[in-house]
Amino acid sequence: MSPLPCVPSAQSGKQARGLHVITWGCQMNVYDSARMTDVLRPLGYRAVDAPDDADMIILNTCHIRDRAAEKVFSELGRLRLVKEARAQAGHGTVLAVAGCVAQAEGREILARAPYVDIVLGPQTYHRLPEMVARAARAAGAVIETDFPVEQKFDFLPPEREVPAGGAAFLTIQEGCDKFCSFCVVPYTRGAEASRPVAAVLEEARRLVAHGVKEITLLGQNVNAYHGEGPDGAIWGLARLTAELADGIGVERIRYTTSHPRDMDGDLIAAHGDQPALMPFLHLPVQSGSDRVLAAMNRGHTAQEYRDLVTRLRAARPDLALSSDFIVGHPGETEDDFEQTMQLIRDVGFAQAYSFKYSPRPGTPASGAGGQVPEEVKDARLQKLQALLREQQDAFNAATVGQRVSVLFTGRGRKPGQVSGKSPYLQAVHVDGPDSLIGQVAEVDIVKLYTNSLGGVLTGETGKA
Ligand code: 5AD
Ligand code: SF4
């Protein structure tokens, strides 16, 4: 085994060590990677851009996508070379695999990639410092993929590095009890759990104090949020967003990902009553066929989804929708697929993600009969994506000529440009000073690009 770096104590935390985190997958993983960095900071670890400069490398993995485990092993092969080159130069490297593939395939990873030092699931990253110490002491790898009884959030440092650009993620809920036929999340992220209201408000307060204007609340089933309030009552998401806006002063609030079944009356009403809630909602429907929705165990029909959208748009007429779709779920016929196309035409989406069904070991659909041939899935995906692209282009084109508020999150691609996000999560570029970064300003949209919009500043500092 190659040498491991000695682990500095919290007291000697000034000794800088390089940390390189590779993040794959969803926004929850982006958040987790940031928090793992926070957890390791007291040990002296600081983020570095190149793995070759890193005393510790974390590969934070995602299990949703096709051939997820194979991609992990191929990346680990690359990182092994980095580790070996560093060892030859006399430097140790702790190599950790985190996230959902680690959770699902922990033992397999250690068997096939014995140069990995730490394997940790999403529920145990608060134990990283201890694992690093154990890895340094032990002559073998450390694996932590249990679902511990303690909530990791109770053990995370309150201070977190605040991202530049005025926008931040905040995880409020994790896990899922819905068990959709195709999905690994209930197995990798565990049962649904919500963070207490006070902890969420405290984290948001710190973010706002550091200039954050927009918070995206995260959870696998974020609108199933049911956190214990300071008053002992259980708060739903609508009550939480109201308090974040009015009590904490968050200017812009988003939340993702939602399940149609958990979209209750309070939350629908909140979209009309709470101006801080951005008029853009990611609400996956997956399919427009009742037969397929039932096979997927989604717990709602296509008409119930349509009705939900009608109610949401009644509350907030300018609400734009985004969704996830799967084509070729086992048993999906041409007629089922046509019903999905019809639902897309009926609802109209500003943006969407779409996937070919691919089996995940251990999920009910993976062993189901009626698997759809690959070429049929390909053809359906192409048709579906063409329609979604048409709708997305039309939605963006309709923004030209409008005045929107933009949160500027960074520099644009061209010199002298800054770029940011409209309320509908569209990328917007304007000519303007760097001082706008982290601020909200009003912009007249004048130009449509393939995946973004061009605008001019109106000179008004915007209201969210
Ligand atoms: N095959 C294809 N797509 C999947 N998704 C989740 N699991 C699978 C799978 N086995 C998609 C769903 C989900 C999104 C995050 O990924 O559409 O909403
Ligand atoms: Fe997966 Fe979402 Fe279904 Fe939960 S609700 S099982 S996270 S697709």
UniProtKB/TrEMBL annotation:
Keyword S-adenosyl-L-methionine in record: yes
Named cofactor requirement(s): [4Fe-4S] cluster
Homology family: Belongs to the methylthiotransferase family. MiaB subfamily.
MTTase N-terminal domain segment(s): 17-137
EC number: 2.8.4.3
Ranges for domain Radical SAM core: 162-394
One Pfam match: TRAM
Residue span(s) of domain TRAM: 397-459
Catalytic reaction equation(s): N(6)-dimethylallyladenosine(37) in tRNA + (sulfur carrier)-SH + AH2 + 2 S-adenosyl-L-methionine = 2-methylsulfanyl-N(6)-dimethylallyladenosine(37) in tRNA + (sulfur carrier)-H + 5'-deoxyadenosine + L-methionine + A + S-adenosyl-L-homocysteine + 2 H(+)
Protein purpose: Catalyzes the methylthiolation of N6-(dimethylallyl)adenosine (i(6)A), leading to the formation of 2-methylthio-N6-(dimethylallyl)adenosine (ms(2)i(6)A) at position 37 in tRNAs that read codons beginning with uridine.
Main enzyme class: transferase
Compartments in which it is found: Cytoplasm
The name this protein goes by in its record: tRNA-2-methylthio-N(6)-dimethylallyladenosine synthase
